[in-house]
Amino acid sequence: MPDSASPGPSISRDELAHLATLARIDLSDAELDHLAPQLSVILESVASIGDVADDDIPPTSHALPLTNVFRDDVVVPGRTAEEALSGAPEQEEQRFKVPRILGDEQ
Amino acid sequence: MSDLITRTAFELSEALADGETSSVELTRACLDRIAAVDGGDGDAVGVHAFLVVDEEGALAQAESADARRSSGQALSPLDGIPIAIKDVLATRGLPTTCGSRILEGWVPPYDATVVSRLREAGLPILGKTNMDEFAMGSSTEHSAYGPTRNPWDLGRIPGGSGGGSAAAVAAYEAPLAIGTDTGGSIRQPAAVTATVGTKPTYGGVSRYGLVALANSLDQAGPVTRTVLDAALLHTVIGGHDPKDSTSIDAPLPDLVGAARRGAEGDLTGVRIGVVKELGGEGYQDGVLARFQESVDLMVAAGAELVEVSCPHFVHALATYYLILPAEASSNLARFDAMRYGLRVTPDGDPHRPPSAEDVMRATREAGFGDEVKRRIILGTYALSSGYYDAYYGQAQKVRTLITRDFEQAFGHADVLLSPTAPTTAFELGAKVDDPLAMYLNDLATIPANLSGVPGISVPSGLADEDGLPAGVQILAPAMADDRVYRVGAAREAMLLAKWGGPLVPPELVEGLDQARPLVEEVAQQPSRDRGATA
To answer: Do B150 and B167 touch, CB atoms closer than 8 A?
Structure first.
């Protein structure tokens, strides 16, 4: 949690490395050095909205007030396997071929 | 160089209907123009609006259009008029890169609904236009394929993220283009290139096949040289789509009728609200001067001026730069090297082949540019445990307050006005290393995306200090897109009357048969007409 005694919100290099892992991006050391202060500056400027809205203001996730847009439960043609696989980096037997998913410990 | 390329889409539709020209001739003229100005030539730089040009496909589609017309079966008023499409929309058979390396060479197996509708209306597709990577940017400098240049000054940015579409239209490479707008990416390029661009009401145009940046903010819309052309194009692409669960299930208002009515120039009974918070400090003097002129001219045409205050708009930028990265970080998670796009397999231990996670990390590191990485990380942070309420949660509440400001303002005014962008086109490289400075370009355009209201940018003239284009933004309540076309058309008619014709980029006037000496006059007139200013 943000430390109330610290000067303002910021992202440390370690935090950035953790976020990069969450985001599945293998940031280089140079990027970690370069991005952390840049992101801290941006974060500081956007954190200003923290005090703007009272607790009783409802959040808006979507400008258009729609709920539960359904279609009839009817089978319609989908994409062919060929179309779906057309961008596949690797394929085998009409399936996407991917690197091993399970880690060493599993 | 054919004069066909300087005509508006509406003029061309009449020329096609009259048999004065053919779609093949017109498409050929556009392709020739693209060949002449888009690529560099030795030391000379080109506009670089296009990432891919489909000469063969466009000409074949043009031939079909001509065959249809000669048998009296034109599909629409715009049948046969070529169009360029921002590279963020899926086009079957044509590469769709979103300006990113991670989708380099990816050819979609399907068309976006917007693209299907263009095909069904008979418009030949010239190619795909350049953009900031995944639509994140205000200058088109964040494209992985090099920037697009502003036809008004090739050393300057064309705006972003849809700089390619705006530049293509401004440079007469295409009479029409499609853009997308998440925080101003249609409107701001329009302002800095003296073209017209509309962001429809959220939900007004289908997002199916529009590679998502922020689902709650994205909209596709028309990029044109005139308001009537924008209304015609918007009518083709807009309307409910069952494949997009966020599209509005109601007919579009009569946009073309509104544009025609507006062009008559009478704004009697229209209440125009100038938003206090969208102007003043941070806005270039010349931009403000042209804006004030726009307001004065509208009042002279019968409009009633109201000053409105939207106090939470000062928080719009911060709200947007929390909500957008959050949604983007989620949307861009799909680029994981598993099913499509780039796959980078890192070197590793020969006894331990790389895992899927290793491949994802290496691919996304290699495939995404700096701005995309910044925003994904920021979004990941804002959504992560412990920070969600303080950042994303708070931003959603401020979004509610911004929407309430709009509702309140529209209680006093029929449309709201502001300058579209704070400055004219800045030089390439001037802001690319300063993210916050870049984000400020979206000051005036962002509120409309947060609340889903429609907005148009119409040229307001050239700024005195640098002779570069500025735009005036007109906003209307959600679903009232016709109002932006009516008032936009009226403003445009006043501009045409004042200058004797549309604004033409000086750098590209040479080679056009229809030479318009307008430009020299335009450059001199402002200081003559103005009272005492800098």
So the answer is: yes
Query: Residue-wise pLDDT tens for chain A (106 aa)?
Result: 444 444 567 899 999 999 999 999 999 999 999 999 999 999 998 888 888 988 899 999 888 888 889 989 999 999 999 999 999 999 999 999 999 987 665 4
Q: How close is the nearest chain A Cα to the Cα of B396, in Å?
A: 5
DSSP structure class, residue B89: B
Compare CB distances from A96 to B321, B338, B365 and report the shortest one's residue: B338
| Residue where the block lists tokens 């197996």 | B109
B268: burial class by Cβ within 10 Å (0-12, 13-18, 19+)? exposed
Contact B374 A104 (CB under 8 A): no
The Cα B193–Cα B516 span in angstroms is: 17
> Cis link prior to B161 (omega < 30° from 0)?
yes
| Of A25, A60, A79, Cβ closest to residue B400 | A60
Indicate if B64 belongs to the active site. Answer: no
pTM: 0.94
Alpha carbons B244 and B240: distance in angstroms, whole number? 8
**Rounded Cα gap, residues B200 and B194, in angstroms:** 19
The structure tokens 């509406």 sit at: B10
C-alpha separations of B145 from B41, B68, B203 in Å: 17, 37, 30
The residues with which B44 forms a beta bridge, in sequence order, are B41
Q: What is the pLDDT of residue B509?
A: 56
* B196-199/B125-129 β-pairing: unpaired
pLDDT at res. A105: 56
User: Tell me: the pLDDT tens digits for B181-222?
Assistant: 999 999 999 999 999 999 999 999 999 999 999 999 999 999
Residue B76 is among the residues annotated as catalytic for this protein: no
* Cβ pair B277, B242 in contact under 8 A: no
Beta bridge partners of B275: B308
pLDDT at site B303: 97
Interchain proximity B361–A52, CB inside 8 Å: no
Amino acid at B96: T
DSSP B85: E
* Distance between CA atoms of residues B512 and B508, nearest Å: 8
The three-class DSSP label of residue B188 is helix
B71: its two tokens: 């048998």
Q: pLDDT tens digits, residue range B254-310?
A: 999 999 999 999 999 999 999 999 998 899 999 999 999 999 999 999 999 999 999
The band of B498, judged by pLDDT with boundaries at 50, 70 and 90, is confident
Residue to test with chain B: of A52, A76, A96, most B Cβ within 10 A: A52
